[in-house]
Please model this.
Amino acid sequence: MTRKSKAMYLTSYPAGLPSGDNFAVREVEVPAPGAGELLLRTVWMSVDPYMRGRMRPDVKSYIPPFSLEEPLDGGAVSQVIESNAEGFEPGDYVVGFSGGWKEYHTSPAEGMTKVDPSIAPLSAYLGVLGMPGMTAWSGLTQIINPKEGETLFVSGAAGAVGSLVCQLGKARGMRVIGSAGSDEKCAWLESEGGCDVAINYKNYPSSGELTKALAEAAPKGVDGYFENVGGDHLEAALNVIAFGGRMALCGMIALYNNTELAPGPGNLVNMIGRGVMAQGFIVSNYMHLTPQFIAEVGPLVASGQVKFRETTYDGLDKAGDAFVGLFHGENFGKAVIRVGPDAL
Amino acid sequence: MTRKSKAMYLTSYPAGLPSGDNFAVREVEVPAPGAGELLLRTVWMSVDPYMRGRMRPDVKSYIPPFSLEEPLDGGAVSQVIESNAEGFEPGDYVVGFSGGWKEYHTSPAEGMTKVDPSIAPLSAYLGVLGMPGMTAWSGLTQIINPKEGETLFVSGAAGAVGSLVCQLGKARGMRVIGSAGSDEKCAWLESEGGCDVAINYKNYPSSGELTKALAEAAPKGVDGYFENVGGDHLEAALNVIAFGGRMALCGMIALYNNTELAPGPGNLVNMIGRGVMAQGFIVSNYMHLTPQFIAEVGPLVASGQVKFRETTYDGLDKAGDAFVGLFHGENFGKAVIRVGPDAL
Model:
């Protein structure tokens, strides 16, 4: 039986900042699941900054650009409605990186992972226990490789990735400095989010001013820098980076909507004299370590030791707004879209 | 007995490009060697780009700035005149990173290494078998970590460091692309210097043009980039860097004489999607591997398999000119200054 579903489309490639006009909901047909496939009903849908990179049709990247002819694609937590795959029963909840941005979708069971709603709310499997959480854990443990007593700087610290980096860094005995774009976010970072000092970067609107704030917060320099933002943040971090510093380059959200290349930091030469390493990465580079990540972070989330924030939007129709919000600093923690009625 | 010696001084800190006016020869007293010390007569003296960094009195680096009140300091090959240290006899030749830029100097024997003129000409211990050679070997083997069939790009390929990187990369089965600033240098790189393709960067005066030339020479992208130059070279390398690429950041000579920070590459974000690693380094980070370097490169130099070029200047008085020449692309291979009559 073929089923109808609402699906979110990209109607045009954004030039600069995306807006709601770049998105539209259409109706699609959802084929019945074949052998090894599942019919899924979306419960929670994910919006993530990396998707902006797929909205540039002319750029070669690790993942192809979105088509205007097909529904958008992204991560989602879904419930199994029909299963033609061993190990999956109707009623099970699953998470996958692909297939979302529809109310119903058919998907190979391969690539879908069953999740347990008793450990954490379902939406957490898109955030702290999902791809952003795994990104945070990988960059911190596999690249920055923290040592007790070292100083960590995290840009975009109130985001889905940054907020876990801060807390895991703190748990490893680091002095943690985070930057975020509002006093509310900074207050949360200092009270619950693992930061010794949170810097509202909007008060320091140049790399020179940000450098001064950072140098004051990190008198011994920054040993590890977790990069989510780029621009002034990277230049400031390179000004205060310590000898032997490590930088995990995860994202540069400040640049994603540029229509032309903005100049980069003028002080990369500091990396030479100070013996600094920078490693760019995407989470799939470390996917084989997922069991290690779950073993460490799962219990911390279940026990409430790790805190996380979410900004929720209601309904598939709001996916465009949620995505646009990523680039206006409107979202606090992970941005998720409630699609199913069981999205609690 | 105290001895008189000519010594080269920095008379003023250069603003921008250094010139001969920044240097002057003065007479100094050379104390008699105490216990554990040597009286040394300089034979060959070294000029190296890193010294420019020590001519900025206001910049904190891994090594303090030069004083205007004391002779300049740099590497040299010297002959022992008097020895108060076990294991050193008058007539021995030694190399050290410090103490040069005088005709005679007294130095602790610690830090001086005896060298064998029968393996290679004495000046080679300042170049291919000395600090630049060790720099080349360390960056290539410890950071880029070559694999057969990969592509290597080396900027400043005709320099003391770059020319060895190219040859060692070629010997490890890499496709090697080098850049240099004259057709003569490029011809040598392709005939003797280990390059499959040498690019005269002066024909490509923008990062866009350099990118095109590089993409043509490296159709599968660049797996390893050895950075000596910075500026357009780094931006071009980041445009063609391959997935999993490694960049050894050794120097950025294009920037050393800037009086203000020049903007950096606008495409650092490529490091993220392509999983690229960049490691800044100075040779002293790898000093413990010197025996491994000598064991590999010594025989290659002795047998003539590794080729090297030198640009020689005559007399201590010419040290300023030699140094200034580094920033005008005037030197081909290692720049050395003949100080002693036995500098053959």
The domain at 131-284 of chain A is CATH 3.40.50.720 (Rossmann fold). DSSP finds eight helices and 15 strands in chain A.
